[in-house]
Structures are given as C-alpha cells and as structure tokens.
Amino acid sequence: MAAPDNEIRLGGRWRLWDQFALRGPGFPVDGVLRLAAEDLALAADRFNADPPPSAAEWRTFEESYQEAAVKAALTLQEVAALPEYQTAVAWQNAALLGRAVRPFLNWRPTENRTSQVRQRADLVAHYWQRFCVKNDTIGFFGPVGWGRYDLVIASAAVAPGTGLIDESTVYFASWALDALARRLGDDPALRPWVAPRRVPFVRVDGASAALPGRPAIALDPGLARVLALCDGTRPAVEISRQVGGDASDAIDELVRRRLVVWRLDLPADAYPERHLRAWLERVEDVAARQRGLDQLDCLERGRARVRAATGPDELSAAMAALEGDFAALADATARDKSDTTTPGRGLAYSDSRRSASVRLGSNVIAALAPLDLLLTSATWLTSALADRIRERFQAVYDKTGPTDLASFWFACMPILHSDAVADATELQREFWARWERVLSLPKDAGQVHRSLSDLAGPIREAFPAPGGGWPTARYLSPDVMIAATSTEAIGRGDFELVLGELHVAINTLGAALYVNQHPSPAELFELTDRDHPRPRLIPSTAKENRARLSTRIRYSLVRPEDYQVALTDVTTDPGRPGTVNSADVLVQARDSRLVAVLPDGGEFDLLDAFAHVLTTLVMDRWRILPERDHTPGSPLAASSWPGKPGGSHPATWPSRPRRTRPGGSCAPAASAPSTACHGSSSSPRQPSHDRCSWTSTARSTSTCSPRRPAAWRTTTSPPG
C-alpha cells in the first residue's frame, strides 16, 4: 500500500495516526488550589529541624491547624454546594449525594469533627481534586476531545468550539439489559423464539460431540440433527419446524449435556437495547412480543428522563426512577453501587465529546522524534514475550499434534495463567535492568535530562531490532503531555513534551469509548484499513469483568472482513459473517510455525487467537525503572516518591495536626513538591490513585496524586 502524502513517521519504523484523543478534566484546573493551605505547610516545615519542637510550639501549631481546618471545611462546603459538582458526583454515584455530600453541607465547621464528618470531607475533596486535575474520559467532567497533526503549522492551534460539550450520549449499562434479556428469554411464551447455540468449544463430528479433554459421546440421530441446527441464528420454533416436531425437549437435553446454550444473550455492544428490540420484533406471538416491547420501552423512557435531566436534583430523581422501573421489570433489586463507582456500573452512564479541538504542528511532531527509540524498547518486550510463548505452545503441540483450537486452548491454560505471567514478569525485570544501564541515573537527582544523541546508541544496543509478535503488538499508544505557557510558546519551540504512560500492544483509540465519541468513526476504520489491509483474526473476549473489560473499553474497530473466534462463549452476534467457534478451528504446523486454520481455509498465526491474553500480560508493563524511594523525573517519566512508611502509620499518631507534620514517617522527601503522585494497587499492573495535596488539611492522612492539566493519547504502528 502506497504511503499517503501526509503520513507522519517517527524514525524509519513508526507511523503516527494522523489524529489523537485529547484528555483533560471538565472543571477548571486551578480549582484544586482552593484546598491548599500554604501558610500551614510552611509552619509545618519548621518542625523538620532539630531540636524537636517544644510543647508550646506544638500548641501554637495545633491552633493554626484547627483554624486552617475550619477554613478548608468552609471551602469544601462551597465546592459541595456547586450544582455542577453535585451533578458530576451523581453520575459517579448518585447515592452519595444523600448519604454524604448533602449531610456534609448541613454540618457546621466550628462543631466537633467526628470520623464520619472527616470521611465526608475526604470524599468531597477526593471528587473535587479528580474533577479538576485528572485527565479523565468520563461524562461531562472528563469529555473526550479530538485533535489532528498538521504539518502546515509550526505551533498548536486550539478551536474552542461552543461551550464545553459538543455532544453527550447516555448509554445503558450492558449488565442491566442482559438482566432484562435473561428474564424475557425465560418467559415461556418468548422462550421458543430464543435461538439455541452450540457451546463454542464443543467439537461435532457427524453424530458425535466432544468437549476438550474428554472422549467423544455418541448422539442419537434426532439429537444430532437438532444439535446441527443450534447455530445461534435459528430460534427454537424454527428448529422445531425443520425437524417436523417440537424440539424443545431435545434442546433441553443438549443443554443438560452442556453441548448447547439456550438463553437470550445480547451481543457485546454500546447499544444492547437495539439488539433486544430487534429480537423482540422478530417474535411472531403478538401478545408476548408486545409485553416484551413494553418493558423495554419503559426502560428507554426512563433513560430519556435521565438524558433530559438538568441539575443534580432532577438527575438523581431520574436515576432513582429508572432503578425503580428496572427492579420491578427484572424482578430484582438494582445492583448496589456503594462500593463500585466506575462508569458502566449503574443502570446508565454518560460519555461526552469535547467541543474544543486541537491541531499540533511541525514543532510538536519534531519533538516527538525521541519516541522512536522508546517504542523500539517496548517492541523488544512484546517480541521477547512472543518468542517465549511460541516455544511453550510448540511444546504443547508436540504432545497434542494437530487438534482443534478449543482443545489446544484448554491444554494451554497452565501456560496462560502461570508460566506466561512469570515470563512477562521476568522480562519486565530484564527490561528495567537494560534501561538502568542505558540511563545511569544519579540517585539524588531531582530532574534528569539526557540528549537523544547520547542515548540513541545505548538504547539500540540494549533493545535490538525485534522480530514478530501478534497483530495488536504492532500498536503502541503513548499518553503525552505538553509543558508550555501558551500556543505561541510552542511556535517558538519553548516547550517540553513529557511521556505520561505508554500502553503496549494495544490501540487505545479502538476502545468503544473513543470510537463512539468520534465525530466521524469511519475515519478510524480507514486508519485501521491502512494498518491491516488483510482480514484479521480477533478473539471474542468476555463482555466484562472487574479487572479489565467493560463495554466502554471493548475494542470496537472490528471490520466486516475480520474474523472473530469465540473461544469459550459467544459475545458477538452469532449471525455476523466471520464469527467462528474455537472447536471448528484447526491448529496445525506450517513451515516451522503454528497456525490456526479456519473452516473456510483461511490461515492465521496461532498467536492471533491469543492476542487479548498476551496484550493483557504486557499492556501496562512499560515502565523504564522499578519503583524506588525516589525516582528522578525526566521527559520519560514524572518524578515519583513512593512514600513507604518508615515508622508507624499516620492514622496511629495522636492528633491530626501531628499527622500533617512533614517530619513524620510518612512525610514526603525534602525534594518532593507540594503535591506528589501515588498509586495503590491490589495488582502490580492496576494502580488505583488517591488524590490530595501535601499542603491541604482536607485529606491530611491520605497519600497524594496530582493530575496533569492536559494530555493527548496518540497511536503508533509500523507502516503496513
């Protein structure tokens, strides 16, 4: 494929997509400074010196602290009373308005600060800091923006648009529509219109069927005929017509044998209600069809009220009404969201597109050139992992010989859940060691700058040109920030780029969140065509789980010509051309490599079928250095102070003023700024950030994480 005239390259290997997503908060970034108590911080700094403060000095400081705490509480109440703030909180967790935010407004700051009051104040501060300074992508308080690279200009150009939001859409959470679909599918009058489907990993050979790792079982001719018709597109009533009698007992028997699934499952999609409506409209039983449509209409009317709501009171009332309707229809209480505030966990959520758009010119593009070497180091990681997995897969194949993909997948389970994880961890340690040798960072440095000319040779030597990987491994998605005083400064070359994160082996712009908020999604598909001129084999992933998957972040740049393989469950439309079951795909050896052979004869590298698992193993492992007490900042990464306690936890100290004291065992290092980054995690690759300021009394026992005022997310890949 010929390179377009406007193709933007980084070095000789990488090509930038010509557009990028712009991420940023929906509230003014300087709003977070309202919570700062600089005078108190300066007073606390004096306690770092020897000798220790006297009792009188402590009393004076504690009095100053209490005075600052009252001022901070009054400020937090001003924030909590803002209609925009309450609306944003309502979208996150509407129950918190009545349970925490509004009770906090009724508290008098001069009264005793109980633990409950402190928790409410912390919550208000937490959300305010997030809304002001986190580069978020959610609702009106984190709208998705878009921009393009423009070689005609040197600087950056911002088109502000009209208002903050260009377009906002309210979506149903997939779990809610799934619950309604299950209930409708269990209705005896509607059940005959549900299409049973063969379990994807069940292999059928004439009149026998087999599960992975088990011997085939013989089926009588009647059952075998019904099983052959269970393809997910024929409703049970149609199967009955084709076999010349009621097939429901036979289908139930196939379900009992775990060969068939007979339930109404909606495809994974941002618009599950459309699939449910389309199914209902195919039901020939008029009364049953209308009963189902009435229930769906009820939920859609409720969503319309949520969409039309203005202000926190209307929004909370509309959400409560929708939950009430859902509880009645689904015959269950709506899911308790008290401990889950991520988007998509309620019955409905909102995503928005920012009115402003940005063009980045030649100065910025030139400044991105050093990414070439960083991207090369990342592909070393994916290539090395791919090599190890190929070796492990070959060892499995040596035992199984040619087999179906389902059986091979199950045989590889110990690799995917144990060996591959250990491989990725070991490679990450080697990755760190190589970067340490390249950078040779001094331990006590605050900011470190290295020239490209000095680093180019050592980087290429440490990370030699990699081999192949899997299809998504060609993509690297960096989050980049610009440090500049103005667009004019960018035009003069007076700016600096800082790499925030580098997402490995994934095109983050392919997530439904971004595709659905693009003004012209067809443009993203055109860019995908340029990267992949041939059809791809894409594993069909689970609908959602708490660790990684949800409808919002599900990869959505799937083209009609692409194949999707259902490994353990069908989450795509069974009627979609190109959807194949894993049991119908053969694993064979071709010219010293393993391939997946599809029913129509198409061949793909075997790793393609495992792409999602492999990407999950490495997507967040690009970090050039391991965590230390202090990692110097550079354009490659922000400075960090992990803040590991050297003594007792601050919650055990005798008073809150003493917990604020920088000399305490959880205090920031002397070189730390007034705010510092912190991420806590139950998993080394899934940080959960907490936000506050060292100079604020609002959350003085919390660790801190300021967020960047603006960032953009771009996509790179080797030329096709």
Summarize the structure.
By secondary structure, the chain is α+β, with helices and mostly antiparallel strands. The protein contains 22 helices and 25 strands. Among the domains are: 179 residues, no CATH class; 261 residues, no CATH class.
Task: Identify low-pLDDT runs.
Answer: 336-344, 641-654, 661-695, 699-710
Largest sheet: 8 strands, mixed
Provide the structure class: alpha+beta
The level of helicity is 25-40%
Tally of DSSP β-strands: 25
* Count of DSSP-assigned helices: 22
Mean pLDDT: 85
Shape: globular
Description:
Pfam families: Lant_dehydr_N. This is Lantibiotic dehydratase N-terminal domain-containing protein. With 720 residues, the protein is α+β, with helices and mostly antiparallel strands. Among the domains are: 179 residues, no CATH class; 261 residues, no CATH class. It is 39% helix and 15% strand. It has 22 helices and 25 strands. The strands form seven sheets. Strands 3, 4, 5, 6, 12, 14, 15 and 24 form an eight-stranded mixed sheet that branches. It has a four-stranded antiparallel sheet with strand order 13-19-20-21. A hairpin with a 7-residue loop joins β22 and β23. It is globular. The chain starts with 7 loop residues before the first strand and ends with a strand. About 10% of the residues have low confidence.
